[in-house]
Amino acid sequence: MAQHPALSSGNVAVITGGADGIGLAAAHRYQSLGLSVCIADIDADKLAAAAAALGDVLTVVADVSQLSEVENIREQAYQRYGRVDVLMNNAGVARPTDSWSSYDAWKATIEVNLWGVINGVHAFVPAMIGQETPGLIINTGSKQGITTPPGNPAYNVSKAGVKAVTEALQHNLRTTEGCQLSAHLLVPGFTYTGMIKPFLPELPKGAWTPEQVVEFLLEALAKNEFYILCPDNDCTREIDNKRMAWAMGDLIEQRPPLSRWHPDYEAEFAAFMED
Q: 190 exposed, middle or buried (CB, 10 Å; 0-12, 13-18, 19+)?
């Protein structure tokens, strides 16, 4: 399979949240393509275990909610490798929240999931543009940032923000003269990661592995797709398309917000999905 030119052998990838899940799977896959890899994570123990599995890798313990710590990742990566061709802003947390309590969880979720991406963009993008070579910014979003289901509003808000940040970033990169850097929004489906394992000790039938997500990502990048919307074993792209269309229809049709979960619209939504 042809790869995006930024994923050429000899290039360099930086991955936040790189000690587990999709980030770690990406690190292994990038290494297999001949890239040098820097992984950053807040969990020093997981980072050490990941480094032992990866071998020749740069590791940086970092809290991505702090710009200074993300700038330190950049400095260490450039000091060791002299360049960064792929930045994967992947670090994330999921903490239980509701709309008017759990303030600390709201703040922590948005600081890591959204500000972590913003910090990554501010720390890395100017230097990467200056390299004047093809490069990638891959930001990990979520389907919950698109259809915003009930249950964890802080997570939804953070991932909706990542979508908006990445869309704006790609527009700005595309309209910057001479820029060879592009941004892409990775939207995994149900994926068996470290966030899920404490609750589900075995791989659920409906879930994809992180390795499957990364393979889908590489195929999409080779086609220069911006929205990299992953299916899983339960949810096809057709199902996702209908769910997204229904969510936008709430605004267009003046339905109540989140009408997909409103009892008055249960039958209508079911018919829409079956049509």
A: middle
Condensed to tens digits (0 to 9), the pLDDT of residues 33-53 reads 999 999 999 999 999 999 999
Cβ atoms of 136 and 184 within 8 Å: the answer is: yes
The C-alpha atoms of residue 121 and residue 168 are separated, in whole angstroms, by 11
The average pLDDT across 237-262 equals 98
pLDDT band at 6 (very low <50, low <70, confident <90, very high): very high
- Which pLDDT value is given to residue 209? 95
All residues at 6 or more sequence positions from 124 whose CB lies less than 8 Å from its CB, including other chains: 14, 70, 74, 84, 87, 137
Tokens of 112: 């890591």
In this prediction, residue 37 carries a pLDDT of 98
Report the SS3 class of residue 87: strand
Domains of the chain: 5-234 (3.40.50.720), 236-275 (no CATH)
- The answer to whether the Cα torsion of 206, 210, 216, 217 is positive or negative is positive
Catalytic: which of 81, 155, 192, 227? 155
Helix or strand (DSSP H, E) at 14 = strand 12-16
81 is catalytic: no
Q: How far is it, in rounded angstroms, from Cα 222 to Cα 57?
A: 25
49-108 pLDDT per residue, tens:
999 999 999 999 999 999 999 999 999 999 999 999 999 999 999 999 999 999 999 999
